[in-house]
Description:
It is built from 15 helices and eleven strands. The longest helix has 22 residues, at about 345-370. The chain has helices at about 1-5, 10-15, 25-35, 50-60, 100-110, 155-160, 175-185, 215-230, 275-290, 305-320, 335-345, 345-370, 395-405, 410-415, 440-455; strands at about 45, 70-75, 115-120, 165-170, 185-190, 210-215, 255-260, 295-300, 375, 420-425, 430-435. The strands form two sheets. An eight-stranded mixed sheet has the order 4-6-5-10-11-9-7-8, sandwiched between helices. By secondary structure, it is an alpha/beta fold. Helices cover about 35% and strands about 15% of the residues. The chain is globular and about 60 Å long. Helix 3 packs antiparallel against helix 4 (about 50-60), helix 10 (about 305-320) packs across helix 11 and helix 10 packs across helix 12 (about 345-370).
Amino acid sequence: MSDLLAMSAVDLAAALQRRELRAVEVVEAALARAAETSELGAFVELIGEQALAQAARRDAAAPDGPLWGIPIADKDLVARAGVPTRYGSRARADFVPTVSDPLAAALDRAGAVSIGKTSTSEFGLTGYTEPRGGGAWARDPWNPRYGAGGSSGGAAVAVATGVLAVAPASDGGGSIRIPAATVGVVGLKPSRGRLPLGSGLDAPEGLAVTGPIARTVADAAFLLDALCGLAPYDFSVRAVDRPPFLPATAADPPRLRVGVTVVSPWDDDIEVTVDPTAVDAVQRAATMLASAGHEMTDATWRPHGYGALFRVLWRASAARIPLTDDDLQVVEPLTAWLVREGRSLDARALLGALAAARAFEQETVSALAPYDVVLTPALAQTPRPIGWYDGDDPERCFAQQVQYAPFSSFVNVAGLPAIVLPLTMAGGHPVSVQLIGRPGGERTVLAAAAQLERMRGLLPRPPAP
Length: 465
């Protein structure tokens, strides 16, 4: 079993396609590992019987699809017919959809086997995964007294603990990258419009996109390629790079101009202190890339006014959640506040924030255009203890989330691709960095990240629970 769980998604896919492995044995191993690590809160629902039946059907048919027989799990924001989908909320505690969301249906068509639902924050609204009434609390496998980040905390834990080689997730302000960086795995946020499902184009604020969490950069590219092929059309916006992306991870990129910064767009709004371990990881990454022949330079980027526009977008994104007045009595205080605040926005405030966001996008893309990639910390702080975030004071909770992850949400507003990967160890815990690309520049980001990964060498795995 341990050998199966140590395999990369790329190798698993090849072995399953060649019939060297059976989907049933891979899914059995994943379910057993999920049971062993259950106290870490990766899953809110395991569907072992259905998963094994689906795997048996895969074994009985000719392989058809890039994810044929590979175990995955749906984030608990994605409806799957017949499977409880709670959105991390007690307001949806009894909801069992009869129709799957397009992403779940498309993953089925690609041949994947869902083993359950990964934990998330309530309606995916926060950068930590500690829902008060709707699911499991995702814990850092390196130290379970600490949280795993969010909102895709369960998916990151499932990958870090070896239950899954890859997991689909979503990122509206860092929800892939924050937990991936917290637990020491790879998380990729694609460009806005890159994917046919969860494109970022289906909401006014344009923030949330679907993307992969994986143990390696190559596996992230592999799942990105599969996700790009889930519909017979291409939503890509200004996408200079086209799939497949996996080959880009196999060779070093040509000489790149790399901008380095520890500046965040929150610096003129909220007091942000970047932990020395995060600064050290950025410096080490810069040294590695320089030794590989890349040009390193300080990124001259000093944005202003970002905090005001993002506060409005955060509220506006909550306003669309279909919650009744009765629902608002049972959801978490932060969720109720966000929904009410969002619904109270007048048209002028909302349109003003959307216009400011588009201006920020243009200014940021222009400011970062001289660089092939931009290197930043992934997080500003070390992992936070469970219960550290204030669940009753929305403004304080918001500030805490910014102080932990000030380098995340602006990438969504600008629509850029970005990847986080663990680079160093400090105090027995991985420390990650972030690489941000140009619009549609996933190939360059993946190639640079894979080169860093090779130069870094192997890092330890989390201790057994």
